[in-house]
Amino acid sequence: MTTEFSFPVIELVDRYTIARVKYDKTNGANAAELDFYSAQIAKLDVELIQAELFILEDIHRHIWALEDDFKKCRIDGADLSEIGQRALDIRDLNNYRVQYKNSMADKLNDPVKEIKQDHTSEN
After folding, report:
1. How far is CA 55 from each of CA 76, 78, 96, rounded to the nearest angstrom?
2. The dihedral formed by the CA atoms of 37, 42, 43 and 49, expressed in degrees to the nearest 10
3. C-alpha angle with apex 77: 73 to 83, nearest 5 degrees?
4. Domain coordinates in residue numbering, the chain
5. Is-contact 9 109, C-beta < 8 A?
6. Distance, CA of 24 to CA of 112 (rounded, Å)
7. How far is residue 67's CA from residue 104's CA, in Å, rounded to a whole number?
8. Other CB atoms closer than 10 Å to residue 108's CB: what's the count?
9. What is the pLDDT along the chain (123 residues), one digit of tens a residue?
10. Count of alpha carbons within 13 angstroms of residue 4, beta-carbon side
11. Residue 109: left (phi > 0), alpha (psi -120 to 50), or beta?
12. Gap between the Cα atoms of 44 and 52, Å rounded
């Protein structure tokens, strides 16, 4: 029995680009995952969002590299300011990620958007 899945654009493009990065980083260990998302994304008008897809994939590559440093404990000798800066860099990349996902949703007329609230103004 085959089940048809429907993802909001913001989720599909995110999962697809993460799967592409993972495929490259793991020598294709997630081929089934990438095939699944590739089949789903092929149903979209990819030409409209191709530039954003490339940028989103690049963002995920940068996030992967920053998180990889944490996972491999490469920053054990780093001071707290460097660790904090990496965390801020990841946060900033994630903010760009949301902007590009929402831009693709707009171009493909998908009403589902990701909303991130700025918590700096809260008391």
Report:
1. 30, 29, 10
2. 100
3. 70
4. 9-109
5. no
6. 29
7. 25
8. 16
9. 555 668 999 999 999 999 999 999 999 999 999 999 999 999 999 999 999 999 999 999 999 999 887 766 565 666 778 778 888 999 999 999 999 999 999 999 999 999 977 655 554
10. 2
11. left
12. 14
pLDDT of residue 6: 83
Longest dimension (CA), the chain: 54
96 touches 59 (CB < 8 A): yes
H-helix segments, the chain: 9-25, 31-41, 46-71, 80-107
Cβ neighbors of 114 (< 8 A, separation 6 or more) are 10, 98, 101, 102
Distance set, CA 14 to CA 17, 78, 82, 94 (Å): 5, 31, 28, 11
The two structure tokens encoding residue 91: 């946060």
